[in-house]
Amino acid sequence: MSEAAVTVVHAGWAVPAAGLLGLLAVAGAVLDGFLTARTTGTGSSGLSQPFGEVARLMRQRRRTTVAADSLLWRIGGSGLLLMALMIITVVPLGRWTLFDLDVGVIWFNAMDVLAWAFVWLTGWGANSAHSLVGGYRFLAHGLAYELPLMFALVAPAVGASSLNVGEIAAAQQGLWFVVWMPVAFLVFCMGVLAIAVWGPFSPALGADVAGGVTAELSGVDRLLFQGGRYALLAAGAAFAVPMFLGGGAGPLLPAWAWVLIKTLALLAVFVWLRRRLPAARPDVFMEAGWLVLLPAVLLQDLIVAVVAAGRS
Amino acid sequence: MITHVAFWALAVVAVLAGAAVFIVNSMARASYALAVSFIAVGVQVLLMQQNYVGVVTILMMVMEMAVMAVYMVMFMGMNPALMPMSMVHDNRHALAVSIGVFVLLAAGVLLVPWPTRRGAPPVDVTEALGEELMGPKMLVMTGVGAVMAVTIIAGVVLAAHRTRYDRFGDDLRRRPADDPQPGGVGR
Asked: Which end of chain A has less Cβ packing within 10 Å, N or C?
């Protein structure tokens, strides 16, 4: 623990890092398009789905609503992408990181609660009943998923005796945390799906409320919001790699390649899960979050704490 | 140098966003103006190398304002949150009180003989803070935590409209409980 586990690179590398996140997000969108094409049987391949959608939204006129709170609406819509970019600043790509923050785990936590603000503001800003209902559905989900997610982040931090993401990755040399912290890993993955308003947590964008939060979004605004969701899935998958999946550990290939491979694999699982899991109704999921997930993840933390105390 | 400029710029942002809370005419804008003010303060704390406290300030304040958004629409009668409304009440008294408090604090800042730094800051400030909070004061923290939890639960119990007799019947034997809102665990 004495020498730094990672090297901080020049700030200029933030641009390639953002580009890499963009590529991962596009990969997620392409996979989703491919799965959609296979399910519905429309279109020759999945490629037309994301790229066609981007082209369509880029030239679509921006819809306006009566008495919209445009400032908050725009902040909310573009915020998800910003969150994803902020998250990956503390994720080490093998040996390199943009920002070697000693409290990187809390940094991720602070960024993931921004989803509460941004998704709700997107629902609020349009001054539309459907989008506001969507915004409240997200906050109701948030009240159920946030505490289990926070305690899930505690487990690897206690296991490695550090809040620094690089040191947590380095602490998994012998055994990946996912092996002996499976509950924390699953709850963390649930949290990532939730901040991306994805899969079980998509009732906020439900068809029964005309698309919910996104009901009135159009053109570039919708592109930013939807792109932000894919970017958040990618950033969450990238953050899971140093936290639970051993960071850059792996045979033959260099560490950065393993980080990317693991990120892509987890991202693919996230995208694939969208069609495999039922929607979590916010009111019903509240009880599941507090009575099942929270005790389960606290028990996980207890086990990790006992093991960590026994080692030291 | 850059740190100093950033610190003062953030101070200006914090004060302006704080003032905006009372100038805007929408509950949502007021809530998030307050959040911006707190985030600026959190980043200032980050600049003072108190990384843990700074990031936690940002985390808690954003979440707090989001929860406030839930409550303001849920509990305010006639739903003023959805229409423009003034964010100030009882102007004259409020102005007098706030000017008084400002003068008091500013006088304190200027008049108190601030001590010069003794020793050097610890290498790991987060760890030092944890030691300070959780070391010899652990008993106090545990006591305060339990009292706070009991207070919250007691407050909810006293405020709740339905009692356990409504849920479980007069002999407390009804299973599953009769809840207006069914839960996800199937009790």
From this structure: C
Give the minimum alpha-carbon distance from A51 to chain B in angstroms, rounded to a whole number. 34
Residue B139 lies in a domain: yes
Three-class DSSP category at A117: helix
pLDDT 10s digits, A182-208: 999 999 999 999 999 998 999 988 888
Domain boundaries along the sequence of chain A: 7-310
Distance CA B109, CA B112 (A): 6
Which residue in the set A109, A124, A280 is minimally distant from B28, CB to CB?
Answer: A124
Domain-embedded: residue B101: no
- Residues found in chain A: 312
Complex ipTM value: 0.83
Give the contacts of A92 (CB within 8 A, at least 6 positions apart).
A5, A6, A165, A166, A169, A242, A247, A248, A259
Each residue of B139-187: pLDDT tens digit? 888 899 899 999 998 988 888 888 888 888 899 888 878 888 777 776 6
Which of B25, B55, B79 would best serve as a mutation to test chain A binding (most A beta carbons within 10 A)? B55
- Domain with B155 in it: 124-180
Closest partner residue to A103 among B65, B126, B182, by Cβ? B126
Sort out which chain B residues have CB atoms less than 8 A from A142's CB and list them: 66
